[in-house]
Amino acid sequence: MSIAKRRNITPNFDARLLTEANNLCPFCGKRLLGEKTGQSVKLYEIAHIYPHSPTSEQLVALENVPKYNDAESFENLIALCQDCHTKQDFHTTAEDYMQLYNLKQKIMGESKAMDSASNVPIETQIGDILQKLKSVDTTLISPLSYTPVAVEQKIGQENSLLREKVKAFVVQYFPFVQDMFGQLDGIGKQKFDKIATEVKLCFQSMEEQGLSQEAVFDGIVKWIKSKTQSQYGIACEIIVAFFIQNCEVFDEITK
Ligand SMILES: [Zn+2]
Are residues 126 and 196 both part of a single domain? Predict the structure, then answer.
């Protein structure tokens, strides 16, 4: 059957699925986002692990495999490069199916380990953090509450991965975060500017210490997490990506 136009995936799954996969195809390692004249280009497709509309052969072959009831659930979806999606979509054996199923279990487990709050919808997490960020006392610039050196040691990723991650977040969530900021009670432009200034100061103080962009990114995420006492790591990353795009942080990275 045609793999292209059979349904609309809930759009908000895309960024989560990309994050889960670290923006790389879990099969072959190819990048899932490209760049063309400064714009992000989608190089991925969202695949169903258990087929959305199984053929009669698939129904028989996959009768006894473990599967999720809802074919459109997050657990049954995976972001793949276009080539791997084309290949896997015609699988009819339980073995092929299990390969994909296990791959999903693996990356889902890794990503859950990273973010224990993954059962809360990401939009709710973002809203929660922005609410708290609103109440942060911006009249006091508090010292950073972590050791930058330790952060630096924890970062092992290449710069390009950070770039891909930030892009994926911006593509998916920038308008949402912007709207959320606009909807916060009594947040006015002045308050927004104060929060943005805080983020910028946080960034500058880390940059002055000669930290890498990854370390700075991680540092600002931790800073927002501690300021808002939030456990929502990915939502904090999305908010930092928002500020990056909004030119408070690394203005060269996404231009
Ligand atoms: Zn691939």
Answer: yes
- Same domain? For 17 and 109 the reply is yes
Residues 6-32 have a mean pLDDT of 76
Is residue 7 a part of any domain in this protein? no
Token pair of 11 as six digits = 């759009």
More confident residue, 227 or 154: 227
Q: How far is the CA of 51 from the centre of ligand 1 (A)?
A: 18
Query: Cα–Cα distance between 187 and 178 in angstroms, integer?
Result: 12
Distance 81 CA to ligand 1 centre (A): 4
- Residue/partner pairs of 126-129 with CB below 8 Å, 24 or more apart: 126/173, 126/176, 126/177, 126/180, 126/232, 126/235, 126/238, 126/239, 127/180, 128/230, 128/232, 128/235, 129/224, 129/228, 129/230, 129/232, 129/235, 129/236, 129/239
Question: 130-160 pLDDT, tens per residue?
Answer: 777 666 554 433 333 333 332 233 333 445 6
Beta-carbon contacts of residue 246 (< 8 Å; ≥ 6 apart): 196
Q: By residue range, what is the domain housing residue 225?
A: 122-245
C-alpha 107 – ligand 1 centre gap (Å): 14
Kindly report whether the global pTM for this prediction surpasses the value 0.70.
no
